[in-house]
Amino acid sequence: MESQNLNSTKSFSSQKEKRIHDHNVYSFILPVYSKSLHQIISIGYFRIQEYISNFYSKTNDTKVGLMNKTVLISTFLVMMGAVFLVYELQPSFEQFNLERMNTTLGMTFLVLSITLVAYKICFFLFKAYLYFRYTAIESVSDEELPTCTIIVPAYNEGKLVWETLKSIANSDYPKEKLQLLAIDDGSKDDTWYWMQQAKLQLGDRLTIFQQPENKGKRHALYRGFNLGTGEVFVTIDSDSIVKKDTLRNLVSPFVTNDNCGAVAGNVKVLNNEKAMLPKMLNVSFVMSFEFVRAAESMLGSVLCTPGALAAYRREAVFNCLPEWINQTFMGQPSDIGEDRAMTNMILKQGHHVLFQRNAHVLTNVPEQYKGLYKMFIRWGRSNVRENIMMAKYVFSNFRKESTAGARLLFVNQSLNIIMAYPFLLFMLFFVVTHPILFLSSTLASILIISSFPVLFYAKRYNLSESIWAYTYSILYTFGLFWITPYAIATAAKSGWLTRELPTK
User: Fold this and answer.
1) 275-321 tens-digit pLDDT
2) Where are the transmembrane segments (predicted)?
3) 3-state secondary structure of 243
C-alpha cells in the first residue's frame, strides 16, 4: 500500500514538474507565474497566431508580397526561437559570465559593458524626454514667409527629376517669393531632357543650368548658392517629392527664431511599395528623424540636415561658403558629406539647427544590398570626418546659449566610433568561442531593443509596417556590422559610390 502511495506521489510529482516545465517553455519571454499576466501573454500569443494566419489568407498577393510576408514571419519565428534558446541555455550563460569574471580582462570588460549599457539607457531616456517636449513650428502667414531659393542638383536621375520639380512648383508657397533652380551636374542619361521638359511646362518659374562636366553635388549646389537671390536657400535631392505645405513649414523657423541657421526636413521613403529594403529603411528613417532629430532639435543642435530636404539662412551659408567648397580631408578635396559639412559649419557659427516634423519629403533609397552598403559607407566616412571637425570647436564657447546639448551629442557619436573596433573584436571572439550563445543572445537583444522602434512606428503610423524594424535590425547586425569599422579605416577615400548608371 505504501509502495502504491509512493509511486502515486512520484507520478504526481513528475506530472507537476512537467506542467511547470511546459508552463515555463510556453512563457519563454518572461517566467510568468501571475495568472493575470499569463492571460495577457496567452491572448497575445493567439492574436499573433491569428495575425500570421490572416497574413497568408489573401489569394491575390503577388510573389513579391508573399516573399515580404514570408520574411516578416521568418523574422518573428527566428527571434522567438532565440528567446527560447536563451531561456534554455541559462546555465551556459551563467558559466560564461563566471569564466569572464574570474579573469582581470574579463572583469574589466564586464564593468566597461555595464557602464556603456547604463550610459546608453540614460542617453535614450534623455532623448525620450526631449522628444516628448518637441513640437513642430506651425507655418507662418504668407506675408511673413521669406523669399526662398530652391536648388535641385541632379545627376543621372532621368524622368524622376521632372517629378521632383513638378512637386516643388505645386507647393503652397507664394509664387512671387519662390525662385526655383535646377542644375544638371553633367548627367550621362536623359536628365537634361527632362529638365527641359519641366522648363517648357513651368516657364519662368523654373531656371535650369547644365554643368559642362560632372563635378559633384557640392559644386552643383555651390553654383546654385551663388545664383540664388532668396533670404533662405532650400536644397532638395532630384529623386525626392515634397508635399504642398512642405516648403512653408520648412522655412517658418527662420521667422520665429532669429538665431536659426538651418532646418532639417522630415525624410520618408518614396519607393517602399514592394521592395524589402525600402520598407525596412522607411521604418528606420521615421525613428532617425521623428525621434532622434526631434530630440536634437530641442537642443538646437541637429547634427545633419539631410540632402533630401534642408533649408539654410542665406547669411549663414555665405559665412562659410569658401571654406565649404574648398574643404579637404587628409589633403584631398571633400566630395561627399556636403550636407553634414554645411550643418557642422553653421553650428560652429553659433546658430541653432532645428528639425521640422511637419515638413515632409519622400525620397528614393537603394533596393539592393550593394546600393545600400555603398550609401552607408558614404554616410559613415562623412560621419567620421565631420566628428573630427566638430571636435575642434564643440568644447569652445561657440554659442551664446548653453553648449551642453551639442557636446553631449558629439560625445555620443564619438563613443559610437571609438567603440566600433572593440565591439567588432568581441563579436568575432564570441562567435568563434560560443556561436550558439552569441546567436541566441544577439537575436533576443534585437527583439528587446527593436521593440521601441516597432512601437514608435506603430503609434505614429501603422502596426503591419512597423514589424520591418525587427528585420532591419537583423540585417544591420549580421549584414552591415562592418560598415563603421570599414568607414573609419577608409575615411580618407573619396567617391560618391552610388551615382553612376547601372551596368548591364
Assistant:
1) 899 999 999 999 999 999 999 999 999 999 999 999 999 999 999 99
2) 66-87, 107-126, 408-430, 436-457, 469-489
3) coil
> Which residues fall within 8 angstroms of residue 157, CB to CB, at 6 or more apart?
164, 187, 189, 191, 194, 238, 239
Q: How many domains does the chain have?
A: 2
Tell me which residue range forms the domain holding 358. 66-88+134-504
Q: Three-state secondary structure along 160-223?
A: HHHHHHHHHHCCCCCHHHEEEEEEECCCCCCHHHHHHHHHHHHHHHEEEEECCCCCCHHHHHHH
* Structure confidence by residue, pLDDT tens digits, 113-149: 889 999 999 999 999 999 999 999 999 999 999 999 9
Predicted TM-score (pTM) of this structure: 0.85
Residue among 70, 20, 65, 25 at smallest CA distance from 45: 25
Inside any domain, residue 110: no
- Pairing relationship of beta strands 260-269 and 309-313 according to DSSP bridges: antiparallel
Exposure letters 222-246 (e unless 16+ CB within 10 A, then b): bbbbeebebbbbbbbbbbbbbbeeb
